Amino acid sequence: MSRPPVPAHHHKSKALDGKYMLGDEIGKGAYGRVYKGLDLENGDFVAIKQVSLENIPQEDLNIIMNLNHKNIVKYLGSLKTKTHLHIILEYVENGSLANIIKPNKFGPFPETLVVLYIAQVLEGLVYLHEQGVIHRDIKGANILTTKE
Known about the structure:
The chain has 148 residues and is an alpha+beta fold. Helix content is 23%, strand content 28%. The chain has two domains: 1-91, Phosphorylase Kinase, domain 1; 94-148, no CATH class.
């Protein structure tokens, strides 16, 4: 009897360096995939961005490591394997703005909520520009939302 194929968004859980458990894929971009992970030391969920070593210059990683702003996902660490760099990031539980807007379950967004989201995105972008960083890929799928 054959087993059903594993869906593309599912990744068999595996431990990374005994520190993190790699779970299901939660995102995919030009440079790699993002998985929901579990920090085995404290039980917190994390996001683990898996990037091919040839796709990320060291200077990009240095930039990510040094960013610190309330409206930018926090860098928590990184691990290297033979073929990939795993960037450990804060897990943002509500997902992307695109996922909230696309289903259109709530009808048109109230203007006050739109203003709130735009203000927070702009605060993050101003901070990035002050650090000499240009994001280059601002879109709903890359804007993550929290409960706050």
